[in-house]
Amino acid sequence: MHIIRHKNTHSFVNIKTIVFSIFCITLLFTSCVKEDDVQEIPAYIKVTDFNLTTTSQQGENTENITDVWAYVDDQFMGTYPLPVSFPILQEGNHTLKLFAGIKDNGIEGTRVRYHFYKFYEEVIFLTKDSITTVFPTFRYTESANFEIEDFEGVGVDIDTSLNSEVDFEIKTEGNGNKYASAILDENYLTFELVTKDFENLPQSGSPVYLEMDYKCNQNILIGAFINYPQTVVNKDLLWVTEKEDWHKIYINMTKTVSEAIGNQSIKFYLNLHRTDTTESSWLKIDNLKLVY
């Protein structure tokens, strides 16, 4: 009796199918990896320094520009802390716009484009794997209005309030720059400086900022006295942290002014209150600008 053994053709076909499938998957995967490995080479735009240029009507060119908001051909590329070198997948001639960014109210988490600085624009040539360095010049907008106290004139437009126990002095630095200085020592506890009254400041959300250069050894309070026909409202607005060296801050007064419906005038104040009677407290300020 002969036993006839038949080849298992079905199993053979399955093996061929599996082998072919593995080959196809491997080929596809290899192709994908190769495509992914092919990456575009960027060009780079570098901004390490800049200028702020002002006219005599705009006051000193002190600034605290911390960021740039970058646009290429009017396409937003990102917001970058300065100094910066950032990549861009473009080459050839392109139009670059840089907007100056600040820390609103000096707060790290509130970085904004400063409304009163014009953007910088330049046509640049980009080359892959190369750095194009840009040195922007920023200026105030032509529509900005200024009320300035830089302590360089004969008189001043600021004064102490009735709350203040001491007056301020005008002092001069070695470079000839003048500034206001106040110190609380002995039994004195409170110094309060007020601006003049401002009438008809823009409302409805129009931006209003108080710029200030300062240094102090204790936090100071910024606020506003809002004069209505029948009363005066005192609004505490912002605590400004102590700085041992000259520091620029942009204080956003937009909401305060816009909410003061029906006011006759508004003036702003700086309050230094001495909390440690064993140590003197001091404040120096310069280049006060109300910009609107």
Return the string of H and E elements: HEEEEEEEEEEEEEEEEEEEHEE
Terminal-residue CA separation: 112 Å
Strand share of the residues? over 45%
Name the quaternary structure.
single chain
CATH topology of the largest domain: Jelly Rolls
Largest sheet: 6 strands, antiparallel
The helicity comes to 10-25%
The helix count comes to 2
- CATH class group of the largest domain: Mainly Beta
The stretches of 5 or more residues where confidence is low (pLDDT under 50) are 1-13, 33-37
**Total number of beta strands:** 21
Structural class: mainly beta
Radius of gyration over all CA atoms, rounded: 32 Å
Structure description:
The structure is a single chain. The chain has 292 residues and is mainly beta. The chain folds into 2 domains: 43-139, Sandwich (Immunoglobulin-like), CATH 2.60.40; 146-291, Sandwich (Jelly Rolls), CATH 2.60.120. Helix content is 12%, strand content 46%. It contains 2 helices and 21 strands. It has helices at residues 9-37, 254-259, and strands spanning 43-47, 51-53, 67-72, 75-81, 84-88, 92-103, 111-113, 120-126, 131-133, 137-139, 146-149, 158-160, 169-172, 178-184, 190-195, 209-216, 220-227, 232-240, 243-252, 265-273, 281-291. Strands 11, 13, 14, 16, 19 and 21 form a 6-stranded antiparallel β-sheet that branches. Strands 3, 4, 6, 7 and 8 form a 5-stranded antiparallel β-sheet that branches. It has a 5-stranded antiparallel β-sheet with strand order 12-15-20-17-18, with no helix packed on it. A hairpin with a 5-residue loop joins strand 13 and strand 14 (178-184). The longest helix has 29 residues, at 9-37. The termini are far apart.
